[in-house]
Amino acid sequence: MVPADVQPRRYTAEEYFALEVKSEVRHDFFEGQIIKRPGDTATHNTIVGNCMMALRQALRHSESQVYTLGILLVVSENEHYTYPNLLVCCADDGAGEIALIRQPQLLLQVSYPETEADDHGLKFNQYKKLPSLRHYVLVAQPTWRVEWYRRNEANEWVIVVLTEPNEVLAIQELNLSLTVAQVYEETGVAQLCVKPQELERAPEPDVSLSEE
């Protein structure tokens, strides 16, 4: 048993990178802590694949590119590194020996029940500090729910919640048009079955947003 007064070890970014290269599983890094990421599920992989295919098609012949699988996002140099499920950035942002992305335009995360609070709270609050970031998309796994956060011209974050099969995640500057049904295609995830008034009463994450 570890004594209560013993503090967990703090790592440097250099130590994190050295360990991550040798590790068979992925870890995030936040203020000296190395945090193991949850293992992927079949549902998670299918949702990511559906969104990846749509984004890759949308971004053909553009200056942007979609990345997944082991690409590290630099949220704060030497302080915070993480692996988004999908990210879109300029094609040359990840150039170099180490695949580090610093200027994402879009981040997409498929939430697990155990990561949902962080995805809405701590992580999003950190992501909002990235000047290049315009879109943050959270996809639920237990049911059909896509939350699209976008930064408007007034530098305010606006949320659009999509739950119906034909509702569209439409991001004009990325040429993306993706229905909720396409996001969850071949996943076996059940559609959200609640009355509209119950959705209105459901509390939204406290991230100081306006809603369209």
Average pLDDT rating: 87
State the strand order across the main sheet. 3-6-8-9-10-11-14
The proportion of strand residues reads 25-35%
How far from one another are the termini? 51 Å
Order of helices and strands: HEEHEEEEEEHHEEEEEHHE
* Class by SSE composition: alpha+beta
Structural domain tally: 1
Biggest β-sheet description = 7 strands, mixed
By CATH's scheme, which homologous superfamily applies? tt1808, chain A
Corresponding CATH architecture = Alpha-Beta Complex
Walk me through the structure.
With 212 residues, this protein is of the alpha+beta class. The chain has a single domain, classed as tt1808, chain A. Helices cover 23% and strands 29% of the residues. The chain is built from 6 helices and 14 strands. The chain has helices at residues 13-22, 42-58, 116-120, 122-127, 180-183, 196-201; strands at residues 27-30, 33-36, 64-67, 72-76, 80-82, 86-90, 100-101, 104-110, 135-139, 146-151, 157-162, 168-171, 176-179, 210-211. The strands form 3 sheets. A 7-stranded mixed sheet has the order 3-6-8-9-10-11-14, with helices on one face. Strands 2-1-5-4-7 form a 5-stranded mixed sheet, covered by helices on one side. A hairpin with a 3-residue loop joins strand 4 and strand 5. It starts with 12 loop residues before the first helix and ends with a strand. The model has no long low-confidence stretch (mean pLDDT 87).
